[in-house]
Amino acid sequence: LERNGGADGLVLIGLHTRGVPLARRLASLIKQFERSSTPVGELDIGFYRDDISLARRPMKPTDIPVSIEGRVVVLVDDVLFSGRSIRAALDALQDIGRPAAVRLAILVDRGHRELPIRPDFVGKNLPSARDERVNVRVLEVDGVDEVAIGS
Q1: CA–CA separation, 45 vs 62, rounded Å?
Q2: How many CB atoms lie under 10 A from the CB of residue 75?
Q3: How many whole angstroms separate alpha carbon 148 and alpha carbon 108?
Q4: pLDDT tens-digit profile of 76-115?
Q5: Cβ contacts of 57 within 8 Å, gap of 6 or more
């Protein structure tokens, strides 16, 4: 909100699956501070991925309730790792419209980037080994809020 000078012109877009409830939570917090609603969209990047077969999971709806033209889009996701998901999200956004700016909000940044992508907003930096797995679970999807590191 500080960086944008308030909520005007903001659109939060959560990446399926866990970025969507995180974006909704952020919109709820913004409403408490700004007393105005911030649009929240859902983005499925499956068709834009270069590292995951489409057969691995069913597609989910992309639903962005407002035009992103000239707005500040904040992409919201749970874990930032290689940067490939965010690259795919940026490609998907280009097919939808041309925002004034795109920002990135991540709950957990675990490092190990393969692409030059850096988040604007980070909940927690969590150093991890490349072969470790960082699992984020959210109440709306998994019935519990937690971040766990495993192998």
Answers
A1: 9
A2: 27
A3: 11
A4: 999 999 999 999 999 999 999 999 999 999 999 999 999 9
A5: 46
3-class SS letters over the chain: CCCCCCCCCEEEEEECCCHHHHHHHHHHHHHHHHCCCCCEEEECCHHHCCCCCHHHCCCCCCECCCCCCCCEEEEEEEEECCCHHHHHHHHHHHHHCCCCEEEEEEEEECCCCCCCCCCCEEEEECCCCCCCEEEEECHHHHCCCEEEEEC
The token duo for 36 is 């105005």
Pull the structure tokens for residue 49: 């991925």
Q: Is 0.70 surpassed by the pTM of this model?
A: yes
